[in-house]
UniProtKB/TrEMBL annotation:
Residues 7-528 form the Hydantoinase B/oxoprolinase domain. This is Hydantoinase B/oxoprolinase family protein. It comes from Actinomadura graeca. Residues 608-619 have a biased composition (Pro residues). Residues 579-619 are annotated as: Disordered. InterPro entries: Hydantoinase_B (IPR003692), Oxoprolinase-like (IPR045079).
Length: 619
């Protein structure tokens, strides 16, 4: 650490960066207009230095690289605001067109010294269906308006023509305009705050602190986390189940992890074996900027190796993780290396699955220390016309996280940091339905010594005719259990008892009909027959596990609300004998439906790495 980056100043700079990031996000939440931004909080802010490195670590963010590529910092001026949402021109930082990104440069002494950026999921940017996420899209041109990096504000003057084009292409122009105003103003405010830091302490001292913060993350991850992974090569894969165009099948994402802690780059993540790009919109353009976005996206999984959950929560993920990982991508034309104009609006099926694939391969490497599979993301909602005109209600409901070696999974977790469900009071005041039920989906968490978290059970009764939409997977495949834990229950949605596919654009719903949504439960960790019977009885009293689930999944016999010790011991002995050894991974009953009857994948076995080539049936 240089003298200029002494401990006191370093603490001040680190606190200021975190404060700027949080202040930008708070300003956006308070001034935006769309429910997805204002209420569901599906947006992120980030602070980057002049070398385009991410400095803040509370959550992921997009990249500044595409802006600097098209507008060199020497050409930027105070008052400039840059904008983009083009997936294939974002260097991997934007995954689908509804994610609109605003970037504001920070100036000191007439030069660019940093950037403040925000991106969020907006209501509608055009395309074939309301919400700009057509589940059966075969081309990016069906998904909405693509905007490469542009100068949206030029020295403080908004580009009204560009704004007019964007709002004209949106079905919700007022919300879009309001959200963009909010994000531009919030990032400009953040840039002023950061400029004050440079003015107070000087560029040299502040940039020395930036270097120190990034170097500290690199050293901490290497010392505390990577040290827990044995050297060697480990392989695992998981799957998206459908792409909206072809019949459901196994779309594989495979990771071969090579660990050499003595090397300058100790982790190599090789995606060879990932399936070819899909016809439908589940592709993710990740093979840009050396995979920088995916490195920072996946790095939080490593925090599960910390000595304690409290320590894990203290570890930020900034640019310091990038030098620790080399990413190797297959040739163009796979799920992670799609060729323009392959559609991408449901790319969450792939990038969220990658979190689980890395967790799975690390579980193999560490003897099961990693959590079981977490919930996936899904968008559900309705659209139609009411007395106020066209409307779009869309919600990102969470689900259960995986059981851990030290605790149960969490219930109804939203994978996007700080995101949330839409408040019932607001929803019923704005849209023509009533929320008849919002609670936990009983038995949805994967059975285990440490149970998987539960998903939502939500029921909407429509007051007017409308159309239902869903962008969801894990409706066939389940969140897997690990180290003897069992899989959670998959996503389910039905309209008056008629079960829907996970990918639906506009299923008609009549007034009076009920839409019931049950989101995924997390996988279980450890053998459920080893779970403390008293905890199982408490889960039943709390409404998280049914009496039948206690008996069938955990081998617990209840009597008067408590576990009958003698009957439970006898039932568990019988269940163990009938079952045999519990598998290390449990993918649930949906996997055999798509695998041709196999209960497990070749990579599920512990031991030497599986062959690199993907099996034929899934490709």
């Amino acid at each position: 650490m240089t003298p200029a980056a002494g401990p006191v100043l370093l603490e001040i700079v680190e606190g200021t960066l975190a404060s700027v990031e949080r202040e930008v996000e708070t300003a956006i939440a308070r001034t935006a207009r769309s429910p997805m931004i204002r209420d569901a909080h599906d947006f992120r802010a980030g602070v980057h230095d002049r070398r385009l490195r991410k400095l803040t670590g509370r959550s992921y963010s997009a990249l500044v690289d595409p802006v600097a590529r098209d507008f060199p910092p020497g050409t930027m001026r105070p008052g400039d605001v840059f904008f983009h949402n083009d997936v294939y021109l974002s260097e991997g930082g934007i995954g689908h067109l509804p994610d609109l990104c605003v970037t504001v440069p920070v100036f000191h002494g007439g030069e660019v010294v940093a950037f403040v950026q925000a991106f969020g999921h907006h209501d509608d940017i055009g395309g074939a269906v309301p919400g700009s996420m057509p589940s059966r899209a075969r081309s990016a041109f069906e998904e909405g308006l693509m905007v490469p990096p542009i100068r949206l504000w030029d020295r403080g003057v908004p580009n009204e023509a560009a704004l007019a084009i964007m709002t004209r292409n949106s079905r919700m122009p007022d919300s879009l305009a309001g959200d963009l105003d909010a994000e531009c103003a919030a990032c400009q405010m953040g840039a002023r705050r950061l400029g004050e830091l440079f003015a107070r302490y000087g560029r040299g001292a502040v940039e020395a602190c930036f270097d120190a913060l990034i170097d500290r993350t690199t050293a901490t991850f290497r010392r505390e986390l990577l040290a827990k992974i044995p050297d060697g090569t480990f392989v695992w894969e998981d799957y998206a189940e459908h792409d909206g165009v072809d019949p459901p099948r196994l779309h594989a994402q495979r990771i071969t992890l090579t660990v050499d802690k003595s090397a300058d780059v100790p982790l190599v993540i090789d995606f060879t074996g990932t399936s070819p790009q899909a016809k439908g919109p589940i592709n993710h353009a990740g093979d840009y900027a050396g995979g920088a976005f995916l490195k920072k996206w996946l790095a939080p999984v490593l925090r599960n190796l910390a000595d304690s959950p409290e320590r894990a929560a203290e570890l930020d993920v900034n640019e310091g993780v990038v030098p620790l990982v080399e990413m190797r991508f297959p040739e163009k034309g796979t799920l992670l290396t799609p060729v323009f104009p392959a559609p991408t609006n449901a790319r969450t099926f792939v990038i969220l699955r990658l979190l689980g694939v890395l967790a799975g391969v690390l579980a193999k490497a560490t003897g099961g220390r990693m959590p079981a599979d977490q919930e996936t993301i899904r968008y559900t909602g309705v659209h139609g016309v009411d007395d106020r005109g066209p409307y779009l209600m869309r919600e990102v409901l969470g689900g259960g996280s995986g059981g851990r070696y030290y605790a149960d999974g969490e219930d109804t977790i939203h994978i996007v940091p700080d995101s949330r469900n839409i408040p019932v009071e607001f929803a019923e005041a704005r849209w023509p339905f009533v929320v008849e039920h919002l609670g936990l989906a009983v038995d949805s968490g994967g059975p285990g010594e440490h149970r998987g978290g539960l998903g939502y059970d939500k029921r909407l009764r429509m007051l007017r005719d409308a159309h239902f939409m869903s962008i969801a997977d894990r409706s066939i495949l389940s969140c897997w259990g690990v180290n003897g834990g069992r899989a959670g229950r998959p996503f389910r949605v039905d309209v008056d008892g008629e079960e829907m596919d996970g990918l639906v654009d506009g299923h008609p719903v009549r007034a009076g009909q009920v839409i019931r949504i049950r989101t995924t439960g997390g996988g279980g960790w450890g053998d459920p027959l080893d779970r403390d019977p008293a905890r199982v009885a408490r889960d039943v009293r709390d409404g998280k596990v049914s009496p039948g689930g206690a008996r069938d999944d955990y081998g617990v016999v209840l009597a008067g609300g408590s576990a009958d010790a003698e009957a439970t011991a006898a039932l568990r002995a019988r269940l163990r004998a009938e079952r045999g050894p519990a598998p290390f991974f449990d993918r649930g009953p949906g996997y055999p439906l798509l695998s041709g009857g196999a209960a497990s994948a070749d990579v599920d076995a512990l031991g030497p790495p599986a062959p690199q080539a993907p099996p034929g049936p899934r490709t």
